[in-house]
């Protein structure tokens, strides 16, 4: 499986369109719950304000992606004549899964800088401003496809300098990361991963840490715990989860879980699932 499909297999997204048409006024979107947001400016002008009160003026068709539930604001006046299509984004594994954490707080891009998304966005706008039956369902799927295409663009263009996305953009490191993502239950050693990346052990370890920001062993542990969190949310038994993510026993998983998150799996579930 390829590097992006492997990631989305575990942490897929689900979009729900909530606005399509003209936009005038001020909308505050609060950083609560589990939802991220995607906003598409089809025409007109729009002001985007981030949680630090930084303003970005959009004067051409643009994409705004806020993948995590972070506070932001949209502002337009009557003279701006803004036309927007907006959707909420819900990722499997919760708001702070490895995929969303690997992305910036927000991404703002003119659509002219995203030529690989043109066909999908033309279709999305046509659906949003048309009246065909099944429009909402089609729009939701097109938003999901748009985010996947954007992730593909970020990897291909190496737009993110560090972290998991930077590792996936590296031809050698991506092979090792994809193996970790695909088979977390394997007892991966640094030597194994270096062989997959066609690098020496020392060179691989240094390059991995410089690019991804952590050691291969720590990355593997973090990935396993992220998968364990997702499976706990799904109601799977801890004994089965431990085996699936590469721990010899539930107690071994619980020790790493507590070391990484400061709580046992049971305590974490009580805090997050009540």
Task: Give your account of this protein's structure.
- The chain has helices at about 5-10, 100, 120-130, 135-155, 165-170, 170-180, 190-195, 200-210, 215-235, 240-245, 250-260, 265-270, and strands at about 15-25, 25-30, 35-45, 45-50, 55-60, 60-65, 70-75, 80-90, 105-110.
- The chain is α+β, with helices and mostly antiparallel strands.
- The chain folds into 2 domains: about 5-155, Jelly Rolls, CATH 2.60.120; about 165-270, Homeodomain-like (Arc Repressor Mutant, subunit A), CATH 1.10.10.60.
- The strands form 2 sheets. It has a 5-stranded antiparallel sheet with strand order 1-8-3-6-9, covered by helices on one side. Strands 2-7-4-5 form a 4-stranded antiparallel sheet, with no helix packed on it.
- Helix 1 packs parallel to helix 6, helix 3 runs antiparallel to helix 4 (about 135-155) and helix 7 (about 190-195) packs across helix 8 (about 200-210).
- The protein is globular.
């Amino acid at each position: 499986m390829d590097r992006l499909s492997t990631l989305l297999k575990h942490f897929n997204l689900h979009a729900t369109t909530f606005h399509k048409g003209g936009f005038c006024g001020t909308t505050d979107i609060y950083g609560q719950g589990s939802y991220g947001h995607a906003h598409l400016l089809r025409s007109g002008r729009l002001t985007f304000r981030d949680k630090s009160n930084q303003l970005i003026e959009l004067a051409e068709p643009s994409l705004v992606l806020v993948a995590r539930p972070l506070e932001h604001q949209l502002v337009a006046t009557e003279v701006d004549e803004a036309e927007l299509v907006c959707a909420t984004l819900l990722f499997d594994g919760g708001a702070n899964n490895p995929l969303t954490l690997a992305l910036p707080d927000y991404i703002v891009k003119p659509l002219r800088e995203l030529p690989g998304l043109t066909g999908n966005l033309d279709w999305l706008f046509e659906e949003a401003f048309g009246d065909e039956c099944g429009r909402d369902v089609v729009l939701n799927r097109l938003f999901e496809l748009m985010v996947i295409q954007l992730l593909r663009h970020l990897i291909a263009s190496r737009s993110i300098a560090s972290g998991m996305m930077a590792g996936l953009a590296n031809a050698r490191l991506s092979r090792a990361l994809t193996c970790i993502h695909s088979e977390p239950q394997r007892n991966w050693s640094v030597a194994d991963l270096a062989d997959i990346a066609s690098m020496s052990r020392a060179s691989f370890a240094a390059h991995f840490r410089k690019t991804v920001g952590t050691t291969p062993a720590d990355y593997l542990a973090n990935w396993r715990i992220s998968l364990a969190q997702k499976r706990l949310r799904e109601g799977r038994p801890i004994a089965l989860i431990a085996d699936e993510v590469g721990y010899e026993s539930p107690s071994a998983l619980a020790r790493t879980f507590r070391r990484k998150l400061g709580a046992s799996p049971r305590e974490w579930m009580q805090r997050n699932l009540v």
